[in-house]
Amino acid sequence: MLIAPAALDVALLTSCGGSQPGTSQTTSSSDDQFLDDLERAIFLFFWEQASPTTGLVKDRALAAGNDIRTVASTAATGFGLTALCIADQRGYLPTANILARVQTTLSFLLNQMPNQNGFFYHFVNMNTAQRAYKSELSSIDTALLLCGVLTCRQYFQDPQVTRLATQIYQRINWPWMLNGGTTFSMGWTPENGFLNARWDTYCELMVLYLLAIGATNPIPASSWEAISRPTLTYEDLTYITDRAPLFTHQFSHAWVDFRNKQDAYTNYFQNSVVATQAHKIFCSTSLASQFSDYSDNLWGISASDSANGYVIWGGPPPMGPIDGSLVPCATGGSIPFLAADCISVLRNIKNWFPRSWQRYGFVDAFNPISDWYATDVIGIDVGVTMLMAENHRSNFVWNTFMKNPEIPAAMAAVGFH
Length: 417
Prior knowledge:
By secondary structure, this protein is an alpha+beta fold. The protein has 14 helices and 17 strands. The longest helix is centred in the first third of the chain and has 20 residues, at 29-48.
C-alpha cells in the first residue's frame, strides 16, 4: 500500500498556504471553492497512488484509497506530473516535496524506464516499470506522458528538471512510429511489430502530432494534413468528430490552448464546445426517454467503468451498451467548453448522490437506476477533470504548457493563425 506520509495527508492539503492565482471572472466564489475541493481530492490520488521511488502513477485505484494494485499507466503519469505543477502553484503541498517527486519521476523515465526509440509501454509495473499485460509501446500514451514532462519543464524552471525533460523529449524517434506512412501507428509490440491501426482520424491525437512536428527529430508538417476530419450534424449542430466518446474532444485541450486559433479546417476549441453541447442534448433528450436519470441537470457519458467492466460508450450517435450510467469525467473534462452546465452537473452529482464522492473525488461512474457505483477511479479520467478545472479557473496548464517553444512552432508550421 502506497500512501502519503501523515505530514502530507489531507490536513496539510487543506491547510497548506501558498499563492492563489486569480479565479476566472466567469466562476463564482462558490463554484471556485467546489472546483478547488475537487482538485484537492484528485491530487490526493496522484500523490498517494504513485510510487515514491519511480513516480509512476497507477492506472486505477480504489476510490476510497488503500489500493494494493501495482499497474501504472504511462498516460496517467503524464496527467500526474501536470497535477504536481497545479498542486504546487495552488500550495497544496510544500514545493520541496513536490519538486523532489518530479525530479524522481523524470530521472526514472530517462534512465530506467524501458523504452524503444523513446516510446514507452502503455502499462507497466509502478515499482519496476516492467511491461504489463503485454501492452504496446504506445504513441498516444507516450505523448500524454510527454505533456506532463514538458509542463514540469516550463513550470519549475529547475536546472535538473529542464535537463531531464528535454532529454526525454529529444530522445524520441518520431519518424520511426510512422512506420513508413504519413500517419502514426498506434503502437508497437516486440511480438508482432507495429500495430496496423493508425492515428489517422480526428480524436485526441492532435497533441501527438504537434509534439512530433515541433520536435528536434520531427515528422513532416504534412502529416497534419493526412488526418481525416469527418463531420457530424446533430440537432443543427455540425462539428468534426469520429463519432467517438467525449474524451476525444478533451485530452489534447487539457494542455494545448486552442482558443482563438484555427487552421485550415476549424477552430478546435469551438469544435469541442459544439461537441459538448451536442452531447448534452443527446443525453437530456434522446436518452432521457429511455433512462429516467438523464436530464438538463444530469448528463454525461464517456469511456469508463460500468457494471459490466470497462466500456466505450457515448454519443451522438448512440455508442456502446448505454444503460443510464453517469460518468463524472465526461462533464469534468468539458468544464472550459460549457462551464456553467458542466459545473452544475458535477455539483448535482455530489449533492444528490453522496456515494459518488469518495477520497479521490468522484468515482469513475455510477448508475442511479440500478444503484451501482464504481469502486475505482481511473487516472486519466480524474486527470482530465483536474486539468480542465484548473484551466477554467486560471488558465494555468494552458499558459504553462504553451511556453514550450516547440508547440507554437508546430502550430505555426501546420497553419494555425
